[in-house]
Amino acid sequence: MITIAVVEDDRGEAERLRSFLERYEKEQTLEQQAHFFSGVEDFKNSFSFQYDLLFLDIELPDGNGMDLARWIREKDTGIIIIFITHLAQYAIDGYAVSALDYVLKPIEYPSFALKLKRAYIRIRNNRQEFITVKNGANMERINTNDLQYIEIYKHHIRYVLTDSIVESYGILSKVEETLPKKGFYRCSSSFIINFRHVERMDNMNIYIGKTSIPVSRAKKKELMSEYHRYYSDLDEEQ
User: Fold this and answer.
1) What's the Cα-to-Cα distance from 97 to each of 63, 77, 81, 124, 158, rounded to whole Å?
2) pLDDT tens-digit profile of 4-37?
3) Is the pTM of this model over 0.70?
4) Are residues 116 and 154 in the same domain?
């Protein structure tokens, strides 16, 4: 399921986008869900990292779409942004907020479909890189490339990143289901490691930075096999 937000105050353009999204969904046999907003505050009040793709009008009645994009980027680096505008010159500023593209009004379907296809490819790639974690009352989106290891203790989950730690609650098996299929390995009942960050191993432990992570005796043989497979696959992809 792809979740899309459209922030557009012009009802005619919003309905055009709705019909284009529905048409694309039928043509490509996809599952998507679109939510429509008429302004900045309307969108902000709904936002909790739930959207994969955002179509964002630059000129809005209660604010500026570019300012809203900056606000989003402070919180979420994974969401795909496509600007909606009358003038292409405004879209140049989109590079500052890592916007994928822009569509010009009046929107035409052929060009819209090409941009949507490009966005969907990026979304699939992002889903291999980002997970969303509840941190207290807030939600945080984590880039799994920066995730060194995950530890559980008394239902507390610690996501240890290269430059920070995110605390949450849960069950490690459920966390494991959210991670990319490649690169992560549960080496004991308490730890999931990211092979990308492993510096060395011995018979008892894995070393990531200054942290020594114990390996379950039953997992040692499988661990080495998965570790070598991970790097063999990387070599083949390069």
Assistant:
1) 17, 9, 8, 20, 29
2) 999 999 999 999 999 999 999 999 998 899 999 9
3) no
4) no
Domain tally for the chain? 2
Does residue 7 share a domain with residue 89?
Answer: yes
Domain extent at residue 181:
143-237
Buried b (16+ CB within 10 A) or exposed e, 179-207: beeebbbbbbeebbbbbbbbeebeeeebe
109 with 155, same domain: the answer is: no
CATH number of the domain that residue 16 is part of = 3.40.50.2300
Residues 13 and 119 in one domain: yes
Choice between 225 and 150, residue whose per-residue pLDDT is larger: 150
Residue 200 is predicted with a pLDDT of: 87
- The answer to whether 40 touches 73, Cβ cutoff 8 Å, is no
* Beta-carbon-side half-sphere exposure of residue 75 (alpha carbons within 13 Å): 14
Output the CA–CA distances (angstroms, integers) from residue 74 to 49, 53, 67, 68, in the order listed: 12, 16, 11, 10
Q: At what angle do helices 11-28 and 109-127 cross, to 10 degrees?
A: 70
Q: How confident is the model at residue 165 (pLDDT cuts 50, 70, 90)?
A: very high
28-51 residue pLDDT tens: 998 899 999 999 999 999 998 889
d(C-alpha 74, C-alpha 26), whole Å: 34
- Is 120 in the same domain as 17? yes
Is 132 a domain residue?
Answer: no
Residue 11, Cα to own-chain centre: how many angstroms? 29
d(CA 84, CA 103): 5
For residues 6 and 27, what is the distance between their CA atoms, to the nearest angstrom?
A: 20
